Amino acid sequence: MAQSSESNFKIVAENRKARFNYEIGETFDAGLALTGTEVKSLRTGKATIAESYAHVDRKGEAWLVNATIPEYEAGNRFNHEPKRLRKLLLKQRELAKLSQGVEREGMTIVPLRIYFNDRGRAKLRIALARGKQLHDKREVEKKRDWGREKGRLLRDKG
């Protein structure tokens, strides 16, 4: 029996502005080093990664900065801090690509989404991205508006 190419995963948080503000390059799937209450809080689906970013430090470790995972209501004194640094679990080759992209090419590591994979593990999809200029953003918006208008015109005629 053939396996399906689409894996069934549950998206917890998505950075929808990333594709508008950045030109997305190569993407990576990283594991997250989380505590128990963070995982339970993620399962409720209230995390936000809109203002977050990732960076690689001098030791060669990747960290997720400024992501908000709210406290778990039933966690009492064992709760976590909502905006703490979270370690990203990546292979050495992926870490080298990320650090090279940031240092040499002036790119940014942008988180795109947090999701649970089919094995129930929390994963973070990150991308090497280059910031868009204002005129690039306007051009994308013009194309989107024209596509909508074209669809309306074709629908009205046909």
Question: How would you describe this protein?
Answer:
GO terms for molecular function: RNA binding. Helices cover about 30% and strands about 30% of the residues. By secondary structure, it is α+β, with helices and mostly antiparallel strands. It has a single domain, classed as Beta Barrel (Small Protein B, Chain: A). A hairpin with a 5-residue loop joins strand 6 and strand 7 (about 120-130). Mean pLDDT is about 85; it is low at about 1-5.
Write a brief structural summary.
The chain is of the alpha+beta class and 158 residues long. It has helices at residues 18-21, 36-44, 92-103, 134-157; strands spanning 10-14, 22-32, 53-56, 62-65, 86-89, 108-116, 122-131. It has one domain: Small protein B (Small Protein B, Chain: A).
Ends distance: 44 Å
CATH class: Mainly Beta
The quaternary structure here is single chain
* Count of strand segments: 7
Number of helices: 4
Shape descriptor reads: globular
